[in-house]
Design brief:
The complex is a heterodimer.
Chain A (H helix, E strand, L loop, with lengths): L5 E8 L1 H7 L7 E5 L14 E4 L4 E8 L7 E9 L28 E6 L9 E9 L7 E4 L3 E4 L1
Parallel strand pairs in A: 1-4, 3-9
Antiparallel strand pairs in A: 1-2, 4-6, 5-7, 7-8, 7-9
Chain B lengths: L3 E8 L1 H7 L6 E5 L15 E8 L9 E9 L11 H24 L3 H15 L2 E3 L9 E2 L22 E6 L1 H4 L3 E7 L8 E7 L5 E17 L2 E21 L1 E2 L18
Parallel strand pairs in B: 1-4, 3-11, 5-11
Antiparallel strand pairs in B: 1-2, 4-9, 5-6, 7-10, 8-9, 10-11
Helix pairs in contact in B: 2-3
Classes of the chains: A mainly beta, B alpha/beta.
Chain lengths: 150, 264
């Protein structure tokens, strides 16, 4: 069987819903991947993508309404012990996430190769920060998605 | 991934027709303020288009522009498509009912009858014809609240929305944008909208011109018609192009930033 070396994770955001609810929950965020293994949580903010070392994982943001912009502001891996953390979805008031000019976010490609030292069967959670235009509550995040080594 | 870039062209139709110019009567907005668009809400909008290229120089990502014309001080385009026809019907029916009441003898004296007739004539309004086959233009002269206008020379009335008939100018001649009118199932702009893809490989500032058609109330052969008036409006695009970089490494693709765990 030929191994599929690219895994694409789609980050589909209902921007108007997310900004109205000030939350990426309630169906405003939908994560999906096309990995060759049995990923769980497809279509929810708690997607756990099953990967194997050497695969290239690529995240891309898509707004349900094409005229409402959304960009991935940051993806930070929380480490395998982050399974105990509750799913936070409040906006991030301090700019500790990134100092990148928000107008330049669309230039970034969020892709990386899966390393070999991931423990098998352990979800490695990551925090996904999304920027929806500008303003006080324009940056929302979830801590629930994860990568897991087969 | 691609976001559609929208430019709203808000035209103060009444003033544009009286001064026969769109300058100072057009307000432009776009959704690229975050990318650096300037002068939002004025006629001097400079639309910033953020191009990107891959390491080999090829264009990464497609920018698509959409233009949405709106009229300031008209019945909003979101009313049902049959609104104008229904209003015309309703006022006609009302006038007929009033006439029936008059002839049934409930108003005795002649002077009163004349006054009532004048009132009915005012409330029935005037029909307006059009050469275009769109419902948005046919019907009666209405004001912005949907009420019939009895004396159009003295009262303000609603105008049909502006129509973009062409996009041309420097940006098109230099092949920076490739505009075309597309058909749309969304009938807000009569089923047509202008859209253009952008070649972002040549950064710079380029001007373009929109040919916009407004409609003016005119009397021809005893009938009221909407006559088209063609005006032009200029705007500018500022194209920039930057390399796409990896979000994790700020450079090329590498390993995911997962810290090696001591609990393997």
């Amino acid at each position: 069987m030929k191994m599929k070396m690219h895994v694409n994770i789609s980050v589909v955001v209902d921007v108007i819903g997310a900004l109205s609810d000030k939350s990426l929950l309630n169906g405003n965020l939908c994560l999906m991947d096309d990995g060759p293994f049995q990923s769980t949580g497809q279509g929810t903010p708690a997607l756990c993508t099953v990967v194997t070392p050497g695969q290239l994982v690529r995240w891309s943001a898509l707004a349900v309404d094409l005229q409402t912009p959304v960009e991935i502001k940051n993806i930070t891996f929380l480490g395998p012990r982050a399974a105990e953390e509750a799913d936070a979805d409040s906006s991030d008031p301090d700019g500790s996430v990134d100092s990148v000019d928000s107008g330049q976010l669309d230039l970034y490609e969020w892709a990386g190769v899966v390393p070999t030292f991931m423990a098998r069967g352990v979800p490695y959670k990551y925090r996904l920060d999304l920027q929806m235009y500008e303003g006080e509550h324009s940056v929302l995040h979830v801590d629930s998605p994860a990568l897991m080594r087969l | 991934m691609t976001q559609q870039l929208a430019i709203i062209v808000l035209v103060d139709v009444g003033n544009a027709l009286s001064s026969r110019a769109l300058t100072d009567n057009t307000y432009l907005f776009d959704n690229m303020k975050l990318h650096g668009s300037e002068n939002q809400g004025t006629g001097d909008l400079v639309t910033a288009i953020h191009g990107a290229y891959w390491r080999d120089g090829s264009q990464a990502g497609e920018q698509v522009l959409n233009w949405l014309p709106y009229s300031l001080g008209s019945i909003p385009p979101t009313v049902p498509r049959s609104y104008h026809a229904i209003r015309a019907q309703q006022t006609d029916r009302q006038a007929l009912a009033d006439l029936a009441e008059l002839t049934n003898g409930s108003r005795p004296s002649g002077a009163d009858a004349e006054a009532v007739l004048a009132q009915i004539q005012k409330s029935v309004g005037m029909r307006v014809k059009t050469a275009r086959r769109t419902r948005a233009l046919s019907g009666k002269i209405l004001d912005v609240t949907g009420k019939v206008v009895s004396d159009h020379s003295r009262e303000t009335h609603s105008y049909p929305p502006p129509v973009i008939t062409d996009i041309c100018g420097e940006a098109v001649d230099e092949k920076i944008i490739y505009p075309a009118a597309y058909g749309s199932p969304d009938l807000v702009t009569d089923g047509w909208y202008w859209s253009a893809t952008v070649d972002t490989s040549r950064p710079g500032t380029y001007a373009y011109t929109m040919e916009i058609q407004l409609h003016e109330l005119a009397q021809r052969d005893g009938e009221m018609i909407w006559e088209p008036v063609n005006l032009t409006c200029r705007s500018t695009l500022r194209i920039t192009s930057d390399p796409r970089r990896n979000g994790f490494t700020q450079a090329g693709t590498g390993y995911l930033p997962i810290a090696p765990s001591p609990f393997a």
